[in-house]
Amino acid sequence: MENSSQPKENPADWREVRAIWQGGNAFEGINAIGNRLQMAAGAGPGEGMSPMELLLIGLAGCTGLDIASILQKKRKDLQNFEVQVRGFRRQEHPRYYTHIQVKYELWGADLDEESVEQAIQLSEEKYCSASAMLGAVAEVESSYQIHVTPPGSEQTALAAAAGEN
Predict the structure, then answer these.
(1) How do beta strands 139-148 and 97-108 pair?
(2) pTM (two decimals)
(3) 86 vs 2: CA distance, rounded Å
(4) Residue 55 near residue 129 (C-beta atoms within 8 A)
């Protein structure tokens, strides 16, 4: 007899990745469809990212995808978007993050504070699984900055985000 209090497991709810040792302090991460990335402890330029940096990148990507989607559904003219994340790790092992700062920088012609704040709140409190997981062990704080650009000026917004102006 099956215990009805246990949620029924759906194979589609699982995600699978592999990390293959490349020698020294390096691993190559591979997901189920073959996408690859390089990881290394104490990595230098071109050697890959540390696993702890990947947690922060996962948070930036997760919340960024949510916010971009929400603003696009609101038909906002989002021309460029950057999510900057920094984390502070405790000194004792295991050295997990205790404080995380997320800064959202958005460029667009009709972006308003109310829409941006609502999108950030929905991402952080409802949709972003990475935020929920990291928020269980770390204090996560966020801020945002809106750059108003002329309508249809995507190239100007991209150049500004890249620091080319």
Answers:
(1) parallel
(2) 0.85
(3) 45
(4) no
| Domain regions of the chain by residue span | 1-49, 51-161
Task: Kindly tell me the sign of the dihedral angle through the C-alpha atoms of 57, 37, 69, 124.
Answer: negative
pLDDT of residue 73: 97
Superfamily of domain 51-161: K homology (KH) domain (3.30.300.20)
Q: Could you tell me what percent of the chain has a pLDDT over 90?
A: 75
Task: Return all residues near 7 (Cβ < 8 A) that are at least 6 apart.
Answer: none
Residues 6+ apart with CB under 8 A from 137: 96, 97, 98
Three-state DSSP class for 10? coil
In eight-state DSSP terms, residue 13 is G
Mean pLDDT of 73-96: 97
Residue-wise pLDDT tens digits, 17-49: 999 999 989 999 999 999 999 999 876 777 889
Going 8 to 10 to 15 to 16, the CA torsion angle's sign is positive
